[in-house]
UniProtKB/TrEMBL annotation:
Residues 307-361 are annotated as: Disordered. SUPFAM superfamilies: FliG (SSF48029), P-loop containing nucleoside triphosphate hydrolases (SSF52540). It comes from the Eukaryota. Gene3D superfamilies: 1.10.220.30, 3.40.50.12240. Residues 173-708 form the AAA+ ATPase domain. GO terms for biological process: chemotaxis. Signal peptide: none annotated. This is AAA+ ATPase domain-containing protein.
Length: 750
């Protein structure tokens, strides 16, 4: 490389750096025509839906008027102003804040969790005079709508925190509702209560067309701090243009949809807490040595004083120790001061008196001080949090075109900061936070283990394409063709049941036969024909037959039809028939053939249906459907067989029959049943019954009950039966009072 070439390269690099450091520039156009609310702009190329700014000059400043691009003709744009345009001159400058350095984009408005607790206008500008967030995600105002067939149905109850609404007009999650009333009746107060107490994580409030004073009053006095902390408020008052008010409503909806997309199935979080449940007590005693006595407290004080005066001489007479002491004398010199003489006389007298008196004085003083000590008794409560570990997995963000994009580094940092603040992160405690961003895969049902005829989707398609009669005709043809391959001694239904049981198991075989309506063809057509007749006609067919024939026929019919027919017999025969149904077991092949001949003679059909099941349960179900004389029939049966009648009464309504009740009756029953009793009674029940009960509770009650069921320990079957019996007693009491309805199968109500 030559020196000259290197010099040129360096110069070009320097110029490139200078150009890159230049501030962003805007491309300007100008206003050439204004007709009504439509204005024409030239010199700009912007897409429909984007925004542009028209500069309006006032006396002291330049005012920016926001406009929306609604059309174009050749290279000219048609825009609609979103604000007041009074004072705009022809040729006014027009530019787009979204057209920077020649790059154009559609209108972008702020979105994201950073908007919580803030008040914005319809253009995304903050009105609460608080500093804007440092990082603010902006996206287009309009997105692709969701396929309506992919939306979830409204199945869950939404607790709005207002008892009157929860009780009278229960709101479902995803439901739309309107609130219409005159002025001054409390609409804003009700809206504020719902915003504060609704069972939701984030509330978006759009105040469209309100007066400015009402907006401030709603935020400060109705929504209050606890409501604004989890809300985003969009204010588009009545004093702005209609276009901005419309945009405010659209913007609020866009914010709500953005939060919905972030929250539903887009985040998984696990929290592990190390908690110390040890309960400890501690006692400390501290002493303060070398304290100043003046600062100490006296506990006790003792003073002893002994005085003796004028003791009588004692001892051996003449001894020196027994002689009184002589007065002390001293040489006193004369002085010129005459006062000295006067002072000497009392002194001498005092000395002479002391010599004449003898004294003995003894003083003792004892003071005890309190020891300065401090006793501290500490009792530490159990449940001390020692460490928190939080793991969060976040789904990729959906782009406007439906594609998935990862969160950028700054967004991940924002989520990290939010999680730390939410959990109360403490570095001294040793807390840990792990956040991962990955693409979630929708759960797909694995159908590889199904045989093709077991696939529920295929079954639904078959039933939607072919009618039940078509399927029945195919099965009839298969039955006729298969008879040639089966030995005469073996029945076709039994052979089919045996074959399917060997291949799938007995339980699956019975379910498959029931699903495809495969019946015992020995008595198929006859009973099917009877089912198409009204009870009066069937009664005339069988009223003169043997009671055993009547018994078998009624056990094969629907319970409500059998009850109607049974009520037409006299009391004694009705009693005998019910007892025979209760004692009825499986029919033998001989009985099936005899019944087939009788039914063929009666209704001129062949191969009537004989998939019979007798016993106590059919008798109880028939009694359940009797419209009248039910109690009288039960009393007559007790006279013949007391024990059998009691068994039938117990089976008249079993616990599993709760699933067949209507929602209103089930809700009435649940109000009379204690929660603890219901938890025990639901142990071991089918999932369908449990779901039926939970769906008739509020969401909060259902969640508590489901959690209690999952955490409950195994319970003795006898205790479960006891609690179920209590609930059945409640059901019978409510049924006797006509507060609930037990008869459901096949009956219509108005």
């Amino acid at each position: 490389m030559t020196r000259q070439l290197k010099k040129w390269i360096d110069n070009i690099s320097n110029q490139e750096k200078l150009i890159s450091n230049l501030p962003d520039y805007y491309q300007y156009g100008k206003l050439i025509r204004a007709t009504g609310i439509i204005m024409e702009v030239t010199g700009l190329e912007l897409p429909i839906g984007s925004t542009c700014i028209i500069e309006k000059y006032s006396e002291k400043s330049i005012i920016q008027v926001e406009c929306e691009v609604v059309g174009f003709k050749e290279k000219n744009l048609f825009v609609i102003p979103l604000e007041n345009v009074d004072g705009i001159f022809p040729g006014a400058k027009v530019y787009s804040p979204e057209l920077i350095n020649g790059k154009v984009s559609t209108r972008l408005l702020p979105l994201g969790i950073e908007l919580l607790g803030r008040v914005l206008n319809s253009s995304g500008q903050f009105l609460d005079r608080l500093p804007p967030p440092k990082i603010l995600r902006k996206e287009s105002l309009y997105t692709n709508p969701i396929n309506p067939l992919l939306r979830d149905p409204i199945t869950k109850i939404l607790d709005v925190g207002v008892r009157a609404i929860n009780g009278l007009i229960t709101v479902g999650r995803g439901q739309r509702m309107g609130l219409f009333a005159g002025s001054g009746v409390g609409k804003s107060m009700l809206l504020g209560m719902m915003a504060r107490y609704t069972e939701a994580d984030i509330i978006v409030v759009a105040l469209i067309g309100e007066r400015g004073r009402e907006v401030k009053d709603f935020i400060e006095n109705i929504l209050k701090k606890d409501g604004i902390s989890r809300s985003v408020v969009i204010a588009a008052p009545a004093d702005i243009s209609p276009m901005l008010r419309i945009q405010g409503a659209v913007y609020a909806t866009r914010i709500a949809e953005d939060f919905r997309n972030q929250g539903i199935n887009n985040i998984r979080a696990e929290v592990t807490a190390q908690i110390d449940f040890t309960k400890t007590e501690q006692t400390l005693e501290q002493h303060k040595p070398n304290t100043d006595p003046k600062e100490m407290t006296i506990r006790s004080q003792q003073i002893t004083e002994n005085k003796n005066f004028g003791n009588i001489p004692e001892g051996i007479p003449g001894a020196l120790s027994n002689q009184p002491s002589r007065p002390t004398s001293a040489v006193i010199e004369d002085t010129e001061d005459n006062d000295n003489k006067s002072n000497l006389e009392p002194l001498s007298e005092n000395l002479s008196s002391n010599s004449e008196k003898s004294s003995n004085i003894q003083n003792e003083k004892t003071i005890n001080y309190e020891i300065d000590r401090t006793i501290t008794h500490n009792q530490f409560s159990s449940g001390t949090l020692k460490k928190l570990s939080v793991a969060v997995v976040i789904n990729n963000r959906s782009n406007s075109d439906g594609s998935q994009i990862k969160l950028n580094e700054q967004e991940m940092q924002n989520v990290n900061a939010l999680v730390r603040e939410t959990m109360g992160y403490s570095e001294n405690r040793g807390d840990t936070v792990n956040i991962v961003n990955m693409n979630f895969v929708d759960d797909q049902e694995e159908l590889s283990h199904f045989y093709f005829w077991e696939n529920p989707r295929l079954q639904n398609i078959m039933f939607s394409i072919y009618s039940r009669s078509d399927l029945q005709s195919v099965l009839d043809a298969f039955h006729n063709d298969a008879r040639t391959l089966i030995s005469p001694e073996q029945e076709c239904y039994d052979y089919l049941k045996t074959t399917l049981s060997n291949a799938l198991g007995e339980e699956q075989a019975l379910l498959l036969l029931e699903e495809f309506n495969v019946k015992n063809y020995q008595l198929c057509k006859g009973i099917d024909t009877l089912k198409t007749m009204n009870p009066e006609t069937i009664f005339h067919f069988i009223k003169n037959e043997h009671p055993q024939i009547i018994t078998v026929t009624l056990s094969l019919l629907k319970r409500n039809i059998a009850a109607d027919i049974l009520s037409k017999f006299d009391n004694d025969l009705r009693r005998d028939i019910l007892i025979k149904i209760a004692n009825l077991s499986k029919l033998t092949s001989t009985a099936i053939k005899e019944l087939t001949l009788i039914l063929n003679d009666l209704i001129q059909s062949q191969k009537a249906y004989a998939n019979t099941q007798g016993g106590i349960k059919p008798a109880a179900e028939i009694l359940n459907y009797m419209q009248s004389d039910q109690d009288k029939t039960i009393q007559l049966m007790k006279e013949v067989d007391q024990k059998l009648t009691e068994k039938i009464i117990k089976k008249m309504f079993i616990f599993d029959d709760l699933q067949s009740l209507d929602d209103q009756s089930l809700q009435r029953i649940l109000r009379e049943v204690e929660n603890d009793s219901l938890i025990i009674a639901l142990k071991g029940c089918k999932t369908e019954l449990i779901d039926k009960v939970l769906n008739n509770m509020s969401q909060r009650q259902a969640e508590i009950l489901r959690e209690d069921l999952n955490l409950s320990k195994p319970i003795k079957l006898s205790k479960v039966e006891t609690e179920r019996k209590k609930i059945l007693d409640v059901i019978r009491t409510l049924s006797d009072a006509d507060e609930i309805t037990l008869k459901q199968d096949g009956e219509s109500y108005v």
